[in-house]
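Predict the 3D structure for this chain.
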Amino acid sequence: MNTSKTASGFTIDPSILRQAKITWRRAAVRRTDRREMGDELSNELTAAAEAGLPPSAVTGDDVAATMRAWADERGMTGCAGRYAAIVPATLVGVAVGMGLLFAVLYVGFDSGIVIEPYLLVFGIYLVSGALAYLMALAGAWSALTVLGDPRRSETVTSLAFLLPVAALAAIAIGVAIAWSMGFTTSIPTYVAVIAGVCAVLAAAIAFARFRILACRGE
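Done. Predicted structure below.
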C-alpha cells in the first residue's frame, strides 16, 4: 500500500485523500473548499495515526459516504459553478437543434432557392426553435450528469425558464449586429452575428447556473 509521510513522521494512505477529492469534486464543492477540507482530513488522519488508530476511525468504512457527509454538514456541496462544462454543452445542444434551420438557410443562400409556402418556412423555424430548446436542456443535463452534479435538476429548471428570454435577446442582438453591418451576406457579418448570439446565450446559461448555486453569496 502506498503511503505518504506527514511532518510528524506518520504515514497517510494517499488513496484516502484521492477518494475524498473525487467525492468532493462530484459533489460540486469549490476548489478552495476542497483544499480546506483536504488539509483538515490530513490533520485528522495524522492525529489518528499518532493515537494508534486506523484511518477508518476518521473516514469510517465508506470513505466516499463519510467525505460527502463532511461536505454536506459544512454546506459546501453544490457550490461549484462548472461553467466550463455547462456553457459549451448547452451551446452545442442549441447548435444541434438548429441544424435543420442552418441547412435550409445554407441551401437558400447558396443556390438562391426560395422555399414556399411561407407557412412551411414558419414551421421550419418553429420546429428548429423547439429542437434547439430541448437539445440545449439535454446538453446541460448530460454534462452535469456525467459530473455527478447534485444541482443538476435545479440548473436545468433554471435554464428552462431563462432560455426563451435569452433567445429573444440573442435574436435582437443578432439583428442589430447584422443591421450595423448593412445586412451583408459576407463571412465577417456571419461571424459577428454568431459571436454576438453565442455571447448572449452563454451569459444567460452562466446566470441560470449562478442563480441556483448554494454558496453564490459567499
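The first strand starts at residue 4 and ends at 5.
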